[in-house]
Structure formats: C-alpha cells, structure tokens
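User: My collaborator and I are trying to settle a disagreement about how two of our proteins should look. Neither of us wants to argue from intuition anymore, so we agreed to look at predicted structures for both before our next call. Could you fold the first one, then the second, and keep them clearly separated?

Assistant: That sounds like a sensible way to settle it. I'll keep them separate. The first protein:
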Amino acid sequence: MTAYFLRRLRQSVVLLILVTIVAFGLMHLAPGGPEAVYALSPGMRAEDLQRIRASFGLDQPLPVQYVKWAAGMLTGDWGRSYRDSRPVRDVIFDRIPATLELTVTALAIAIVVGVSLGVLGALRQRSLPDYLATIGAMVALSVPTFWFGLMVIFVFAERLGWIPSGGRETLGADFSLADRLHHLIAPALVLGLVLVATWSRYTRASMIEVVNQDYIRTARAKGLGERRVIWGHAFRNAAGPLVTLAGLQIPFLFSGALVTESVFTWPGMGRLFVDSLGYRDYPVLMGVLVVTALLVIGSNLAADLLVAVVDPRIRFR
C-alpha cells in the first residue's frame, strides 16, 4: 500500500500543477481584468489604467506571472487581494470554517438519510417505500439547487418565518450554538438533500447485490438477529462502493456549496469565489481554486485508501 500511496501522491501533485496552469491561463485570458473595475470610475485615463496593471504585475508575460505566483504559493506568500489589499491566505482562511461547517453537515445529512432509504429500499423491493424513495430521488436529481434554495427561503423564511433568510449568525448578537444551528439548518438541508438521491440509489444497488449472497443466508440460518445480519454483515460488505462514492461526491459538494452559499448569503469560500469573480480578484480566485483542488484530490486519495480498510479483499499493487 505504501508504494501505491506514493504513486498516487505523485500523480496528485502533477494533477494539481496542471489544474493551476489551466485555471491561471483561462482566468487571465478572459476578457476584462482587475483594471476593468477601475475603468468605470469617472476621469480614469488610459495611463492610469496602465499604472494599475503595472502595480498588479499584469503587464508582464503570462508565464512570468504564473511562475511568480507559484513561487509565492510554495513559500507561503499567496499574494494580496486586489479588492482590499488583505493577504489572500487570511481572506481564505477566514472563510474555510464556514464552508467546512456547511459541507460536513450536508454530507452527514446525505449519508444518514440516503443510506437509510437505500437499505430500506433493498430490503423491501417494489414496496411503497421503495417506489416513493425512487420517485423522490428522481425529483431531487432534477431540481436545480438554486431554485430549491430560493423556494425554501420563500416558504419557510418569508411566508412562515421559521428560519432566517440568510447569513451564518444573527448580526449584533453574542455567539450562541442554537442561533448558529438555526442559520445552518436550511442551507445544510438544501445541499444535503440534493445528495441524498445519489446515496440512496448507490446504497440500494449495493445492498441488493449483497443480501442475496450465500453467507447472508448462512448468517440467518445460524440464528443471528436481523439487525446484526443487515448492519454487521450485509452493510459492511456493501460499504466499499459507498466509501468511493464519498470521495467522488466531494467535488459536487463544493460546487453545490458555491450555489447554496450564494443563495443563503453564507460567508464561505463559495460566496467568496463568486464575489471575487465580480472584482476580477485573481489572487483570491486562484487561492480558492488551489484550496478546493487540494481538498478534492486529498479526499479522493483518502477514499481510495479507506476502501482497503473497509474491504480487506482489496489489495493495491
């Protein structure tokens, strides 16, 4: 496994470099730039815009800009935001806790609800709960996240007043766990329920394949309780594909968080990315992309290694 880990680690480093090159190139080749925001100011002259480009280092060749940026990232100097001159590292690290709070809660909701529905569907195939779970999964996969979030705000915040319409905490109030949960529940449910469909379908298919195996019938014949048979034997052997699914869903989780954070004005990295796009804040955009890429690549690598822990039959070469 050590050799496999080192090989995957090398591949991950190469992948990260390629991602940063492509993202850096596309970002700087897109029309407009940070100086376009200043161009809207009255009295702004062409020579003023040129000085702004020079101060940002945008007048240098693109490969030189990338090498300087990459060298800064490796030495811990992520640059400064074009918007307010704050260090990019501080800007991003201030937003990471909010994003992790949202995504971890949403993933926990998706796993608990999705796995439960999937196991229920596998044990009661073609029953009413199974059909309802299938219909619900199709609906969840078809509904856009932003529309779902807006409807939740309209119904439960505007009409019923049960939840806040946005934010992470009540402005001006002291920290309270109840207040934080009150603000978290809506965006976490919106993001998590969208992922429930995938978890329930994968769990159902994996469990159906396992519950018909001979060793499950043998366990029942030995007099083991049904709960122990299902969760101790069947689900444990069906969990291998689910561990892989967890790693594969991390990218979708972050992309969904980008939309959810924008709809609910949640102060995380997703909203920071959207705001930085409007200001053409290249250093912040690249910093967010690098952090997200590291989390996605790392989670996929961890998922691959955990598969061997869950299923001892798997051996890496």
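The second protein, kept apart from the first:
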Amino acid sequence: MKIVLISGAIYSVPSINFFGGQKMIQSIVSIGEPNKNNIPVEQSAVLFNIPFKRFLKNDLVTGFKDWLSVEQPDVVLVFGCGYKIPGELFTIPKLGFYNIHFSLLPAYRGRNPLFWQLKNGEPVGGITIHKMVEGFDAGPILAQKEVQIFPGENHGLLSGRLSMESVAFIDQAIWKLEKENSNELPEQDEKAVSHAPEPSVNDLRINWETQSAKEIENLVNATNPDYGGAITLLRGQLFRLLEVSLADLPHDSAFAPGTIVHADVNYGVFVACKDSQFLRVNVTQSGEGILSGFKLAGIGVAAGDRFDSAPDLSGIGIKLQL
C-alpha cells in the first residue's frame, strides 16, 4: 500500500520511526512554516530516507493538490495538521484521507482534545482513526481504542504516551483498511458530539474561589507544558503553576482560598483551596524562572501570602511572558 503521511506534530515521530523502518511510507508532508513541532518530523524523514515535502497553507489547493495527483497514493494519513484540508482533495487517494485523533470521537472534536480531557478530569481518553470528510473531525470510524488517563498525568506525558501507543494501533488500522470495505465503516453519533477548541488565555486562569483543589490540579496538568502552566497572581504579579498535588493537612481554622498556609525549605509550599482542601505547590514559573516549591519558600514566600485569581486577560497572547 502506498501511504503518504501529513504531519506537523512531534507526537507522530514514533510512528514515522516505525513505519519508516518498515519502508511503509511513500512520502511525508508538513503544512506551514518550519517550527519546533514539524522540524522533528522533517528530521525523522531524512533519517529514514523518506521523501519530504513542505507546503504552505496557500499551496493546499494548488501545489499540494498537483503533487498529490502525481504521487497517487492509496491512502493519506493525517497525524497532527494545523490546517483544514480542502474536501476536494479527499478523492485523490484511492482509499481517501484518514485522520488520527487523540480522543474517543465524537467526543472532543477540535484542535486540542487533550487539554480539555485533562481539564475536565476525564479518567479515560483514547485514539480514533476516522475517514476524513468536510466536517472537522467528523467522518466514519475505522478504528478506536480506549486509553486510561493516569492520576496526575500532564499534557506532555499523556501526548507522549499516546504517541507511543499509536504505533501498533495505526499498524492494525492499515491492515484493516487493506482487508475491509472502507465504504461500510460506522458513522459517528452526531448526538454525542463535544468540542475541544484551542483554549483561550482565560481558559488557563485559576479561580481560587470557585474551583476545587482537584479542578485546579486538573487545570495545571492540562497546561503543562504546552501552555506554560495555569495562571494566577502572587503579590500582584502574574505567576504560573506547573505541577501541584493534593495534600491532606491537619487544620483547626478556615482559610480563604488561595492562602498559603505553610511554607518552608524542607516541606515546600501548601495552599488552601475551597471546602477546606489543600494543594502542595511542586513546580512554578515566574519572572525569576522555573522554581520548585522548596525554592519558592527559600526566596521568601511565606504562610499568609496569597495566590489570587488573575483578572480577565482577554486580548493578551496565550503565550504571555512572565
């Protein structure tokens, strides 16, 4: 089977390494300018002597369409593409285009399914391979696999684990595609659709007054590392939390949510949440750099200091500098 892979995502690299070694990929394509995510894709293509092509967004219905018509692959696999592929291209490969998506579709259709699954505290996620149609992340399902989301797992760890689990899963799906009629695949249940758009900067804010300790931990995990941590204020300055964990502290008084109740260089920093819950602050980021809770205590953060909810950040870039 002649396979073209479209990818601009670093999490496709394990699959490229496997299928490149098996000589199963005809060509690899990245759409868009070189960046930190698609350069490793190009490097992997070079490593396995796989022809690599780069097209810009404006080339999709011109240069890329012409190139694809000459290549005439049996199937195009899409594994992390930041641009919507025009539907007029879907009929060029004999078997069509198939997208690899990190959720159990039709749940979490969109650009960032892992962020929302982690933020919402989902215990189970998954991988779906579906035939591409005009609708975004719609189309009949070729294969689907449930994957447990481990307690405390952050965005980077989960995406890395799914990228490894995708290798064998894609291999099985290709075998299935060779053996079965792709026109008889089950359609997605449109009544069960949920969406996972790219989060805004306000989606990264911690609200100490309304979010529970577990909800804050989920948000922190969802923002690490791609979004640089969950946003809060400390001493009036923007601050990021990159890792926290639930803590069980003895206490005999009530604390306002966000209040630091204990801080020292031996045990680190502990903060009160709503409903008399507590979090241990493990890793943070500020203008001074990435700091552990122990170092945070060492530079003078003390009991009685308070993390505050940040104001509305609309209009500020999501990659705001601290």
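Some points you might bring to the call about the second protein. The radius of gyration is 23 Å. The chain has a mean pLDDT of 94.
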